[in-house]
Amino acid sequence: MPGGSKAHSDGGWDAREKGFIPVQTRDARFRSYAAAEFPAVTGHEVNWKLTPVGRIGDLIDGELSGAPYELDAPTTTGIDVSWVDRSDARVGVVGTPEDKAAANAWGSFDKALVITVSGEDEQELVLGRSAFGAAPRAAHTIIEAKPFSNAVIVLDNSGAASLVENVEIVIGDSARLTVVTVQDFDDDARYVATHFGRVGRDARFKHVVVSLGGSVVRVNPAITLAEPGADGELLGVYFSDAGQHLEQQVFLFHEAANTKGRVNYKGALQGEGARTVWIGDVLIGANASATDSYEQNRNLVLTDGTRADSIPNLEIETGDILGAGHASATGRFDDEQLFYLRSRGISESEARRLVVRGFLAEIVQKIGFAPLEERLNSAIEAELAASVGIAGSTLGRQVDGAQR
After folding, report:
1. Exposed, middle or buried, 370 (CB in 10 Å: 0-12/13-18/19+)?
2. pTM of the complete model
3. Which of 227, 269, 304, 383 is the most core-located residue (most Cβ within 10 A)?
4. Domain SUF system FeS cluster assembly SufBD core spans what residues (predicted)?
């Protein structure tokens, strides 16, 4: 049924033919470009049940401005940035919305921002986007990496925002592309985004989600390894403060044979009401023989009053794979690590900062773009410096973990 799941009925049935969609069948969800074809969002749907829908209701089904916005796009050899009409043939090449918010944005934008990478020598582009404004808005971005091209693209989001965005990413054969989306919005900003990606033959794609600022931030990557030899690395780092909701629902689809996928997200939480949600769906399709896939999520709780939801899911439709697995853990400081540092003359507060920095550094160091890595390390330091309860004596050892 559109927008959700339906309970199993007695007797045999085929999910695709009869419209029943078990929760675990990730690729059978309803999809449409038209928001009107989705039922009203109540917060009970499988892909909305952990989201504060009351705080973003106007973005899900309200009226959105689709006008182009100002951006800072420095001229870069081998990378073209331009606005195109929604009738452009590149719109809709990758992905179809599977929730009402994405469909609402799809039907509301006037022009799409297209970033085309064509140079074979590695290029870097940091696209500054700080002029969205506080009014509800829709946006559509297309990133196309031509075959054999090589680039790092950073979508640097900041300032005020009430934005719903769809991002389509096409990685041509043998291309090397890194896309980093940074959410460093104002404290009251709201941002809901879906990133659709298609990775071609022997191409390598790195997708990085960095969420630091904003009231509600929901970034959902849906990446398909569509051709043999495709390699996808999906990374994320996030730091949630009091009252802040940071969410990621990740979907990695091994569609073709001989593909490799790695998903690794890490987050920290501090302050009353800090909330994070991570859902990782990996699907190894029936034709994806010799697949190598692994996903994991780790959350570090710094104070009481926080909540981290972490749900890894793995669906395998073929028995011919190299390996597949997933892991999830949410915990507090490790007393043994703290004892080791303090026994060497390091103060408790500094020891706790070192533990957090080391915990998140694994992801930051994998971005592969030094200026951004330095900036993120500074931002993490600022978050820790502003912490009130990080040295609280109630923080103990890991409280929950799962390895499958």
Report:
1. exposed
2. 0.89
3. 269
4. 138-359
Cα 139 to Cα 66: distance, rounded to the nearest angstrom: 6
Q: Give the separation between CA 175 and CA 67, rounded to whole angstroms.
A: 32
Q: What three-state secondary structure class fits 70?
A: coil
Q: Name the strands in the sheet holding 161-171, side by side, starting at the edge strand that comes first in the sequence.
A: 79-85, 111-117, 133-145, 161-171, 190-199, 216-225, 245-254, 275-284, 307-316
Place of tokens 């998903």: 263
- Mean pLDDT calculated for residue range 209-237: 98
**What's the Cα-to-Cα distance from 103 to each of 37, 46, 70, 192, rounded to whole Å?**
9, 17, 23, 12
* Tokens representing residue 294 in the block: 């692994």
According to DSSP, the β-strands at 400-403 and 321-331 are antiparallel
β-pairing, 133-145 vs 111-117, is parallel
The residues spanned by each domain of the chain are 1-30, 33-329
**Cβ–Cβ under 8 Å, residues 280 and 265:** yes
On average, the pLDDT of the chain sits at 88
Q: Is the distance from CB of 70 to CB of 30 less than 8 angstroms?
A: no
| Whole-angstrom distance, CA of residue 84 vs CA of residue 302 | 45
Which SS3 state, helix, strand or coil, does residue 78 take? coil
